[in-house]
């Protein structure tokens, strides 16, 4: 064996050792990668289960909220109707009050003035008649 052949043989052995070391390194790194892959798969399944539960709960919550909003809409419509009716009643009461005031107050004032005039006139007649009575009593 010559010197060149020995160096070539040693180079082949070194290459073989390097290839075995690279294989060991790849296997060493591949094991955690495989375990990490399994972990990620389990995590994905867990998230799917949790998301499914959360989605079901969220769907039920949205459904219940929509039902409550429908009820609230009915109540709001009822309040609007009541408010409109109260406004109409208020207008009617105001109109009725005006009609009553115009119908009753004018004649009432006229009646009060008439009775006042009658009282004043009757007091005037009483005063004249008492003066006449007093004069006629003095003359006798």
Q: What are the main properties of this structure?
A:
140 residues, mainly alpha, 1 helix, 98% helix
Task: Summarize this structure briefly.
This protein is mostly helical and 140 residues long. The chain has one helix at residues 3-139.
Report on this model:
With 140 residues, the chain is mainly alpha-helical. The chain is built from one helix and no strands. The chain has one helix at 3-139. The longest helix is centred in the middle third of the chain and has 137 residues, at 3-139. The model has no long low-confidence stretch (mean pLDDT 84).
List the helices and strands and how they pair.
Layout: H1 3-139
User: What is the count of helical runs?
Assistant: 1
Q: What average pLDDT do the residues reach?
A: 84
Taking Cα atoms only, what radius of gyration do you get, to the nearest Å? 57 Å
Shape: rod-shaped
Q: Provide the low-confidence segments as ranges.
A: none
